[in-house]
């Protein structure tokens, strides 16, 4: 395998871990999108020239309609979906203005971290689920 093939195409993605009374915000990916029906942490792709935190603040505004203050970096992970890889960067988000609403997702829910085990979630997140659940139960200020 040559170098180019091995490195392939990488998409940087930022996601936010929002908690309310110990529960975590998840959005259901809409019909017609890749991974339709999967419950994800709200977020999206980093545009060129953006800082990861700026990208996450923008995505949270666009997708769930909140003005968020991005907190500490909690986890960085990679996953390969065949031809294409994602670099996932997870931030805690402790403070925001507004109430999350479904501007993009089919539905939004607040769930206890352990409930992630029985929900349909992206394979990228499934692979690190124990670690993710630990992070979700232990926010960092
Ligand atoms: P697509 O259809 O795969 O080109 O991507 P979009 O534009 O529908 O989705 P976007 O902008 O949310 O990109 C996020 C990518 O990261 C998408 O391929 C799904 C993947 N992903 C894996 N786990 C998560 C997660 O927990 N949250 C988010 N937002 N994306 C995740």
Descriptive report:
There is one protein chain. With 141 residues, the chain is an alpha+beta fold. It has a single domain, classed as Nucleoside Triphosphate Pyrophosphohydrolase. It is built from four helices and nine strands; from the N terminus they run αββββαβββββαα. The strands form two sheets. Strands 1, 2, 3, 4, 6, 7 and 9 form a seven-stranded mixed β-sheet that branches. The longest helix has 13 residues, at 52-64. The termini are far apart. It binds 2'-deoxyguanosine-5'-triphosphate. 2'-deoxyguanosine-5'-triphosphate binds at residues 13, 15, 33-35, 40-41, 43-45, 86, 88, 122, 124-125.
Q: How many domains?
A: 1
SSE string: HEEEEHEEEEEHH
pLDDT averaged over residues: 95
What structural class is derived from the secondary structure elements? alpha+beta
Quote the CATH topology: Nucleoside Triphosphate Pyrophosphohydrolase
- The CATH class label is Alpha Beta
Q: Are any ligands bound, and if so which?
A: 2'-deoxyguanosine-5'-triphosphate
Compact summary:
The chain has 141 residues and is an alpha+beta fold.
Fold blueprint:
Layout: H1 3-7, E1 9-20, E2 23-28, E3 39-40, E4 43-45, H2 52-64, E5 67-69, E6 73-81, E7 84-93, E8 95-97, E9 107-111, H3 123-126, H4 129-137
Parallel strand pairs: 1-7
Antiparallel strand pairs: 1-2, 1-4, 2-3, 2-9, 5-8, 6-7
Question: Main traits of this protein?
Answer:
alpha+beta; Nucleoside Triphosphate Pyrophosphohydrolase; 7-stranded mixed beta sheet; 141 residues; binds 2'-deoxyguanosine-5'-triphosphate
